[in-house]
Amino acid sequence: ILKIGELSSTERCIKNLLRIKESHLTILATSTNEQDRELENHTYSDSVIFHRGDEDDVIMRFLDICDEKEVDIIFRTTADCPYLSSEIASILFESHIKNKADYTAAKQAAVGTSMEIMNVDALRKIKAHFKSAYLSEYMTWYFINNPEFFDLNFVDLPEEYIRDYRLTLDYQEDLDLFNEIENHFQKEKKSYTLEELFSFLDQNPRIANLNKHLTLAYKTDQKLIDLLNKETKM
Question: Which among 68, 76, 132, 181 would be 20 to 30 A from 195, CA to CA?
Fold first, then answer.
């Protein structure tokens, strides 16, 4: 719910999700924990469905609302990624359908700009195996650790959509970077594409480097990695 410019991180994420032309519903799926009730005030648009489900088993949370709304394919992302690209989403979706995949992701992308595409039937298969998918906050691992059970599809993005920037919100330095971005584009009073965002960061290395030293826990925390490898294997 931290503000990035005039919008919270959640709202900025949803604003970009609503640009995905292949998507028919946008759902903010959070937990039944009382502290998460506040997110209902950050749906950005009246068209967004607000759903509360299982606090730990995120796959179960997804399946509950997907069954209710008869959803068969999900664009999955998290609300700490305010700079998601609808252009990348379209590339991934086309490949997902063409390759009849269960799970699709980009091989390389700036952290926070891409998303995963997954079939709801594949989530049902995971849930049938795990009575409690308590680590499904890290849903990716349930797919990549079980290639014998799923058709996995990893996509090469065009070069203009690939950078080594960090555009996810975990630390104060991330928030500082995001507000530098918003200050720039608000002065120009314009909406902007991912390519324009990259161009701004390319031309302003001081700003781009504000959070460059930070790492992702699921890529660097060996204890977490070992746990995920053990507990997500079918």
Answer: 76
